[in-house]
Task: structure prediction
Amino acid sequence: QVQLVESGGGLVQAGESLTLSCVASGRTFSRDVMGWFRQAPGMEREWVATISRNGDFTYYTNFANGRFTISRDRPGNVVYLRMSSVQPDDTAVYYCAGRTGSSLSNCDSVATYDYWGQGTQVTVSA
Result:
């Protein structure tokens, strides 16, 4: 069983940047597809980005494309989300998630991920 722990969240001002990290314990997720999601108060959890097992392919939702970057280290034990030019609308709890196997189909669906972290709060002030 993989346990994920996110870090790097906090309070930032609009226009600033920050990087979230996700590390694993229990076993590595080097052979899993990894994703980032977020959930704002009163909203459903929504997909942000996904990265393939080897890191060669990345996918983003519209609001993240061009501002956020998902990456993973080569051993595959850490996944990052670099967030640039953040806006108040980016305020949310950000979750790291993983799914076993190599398939990237429906990578934007919460239901297709097998394990999750507890989340890290990102608050963007105007």
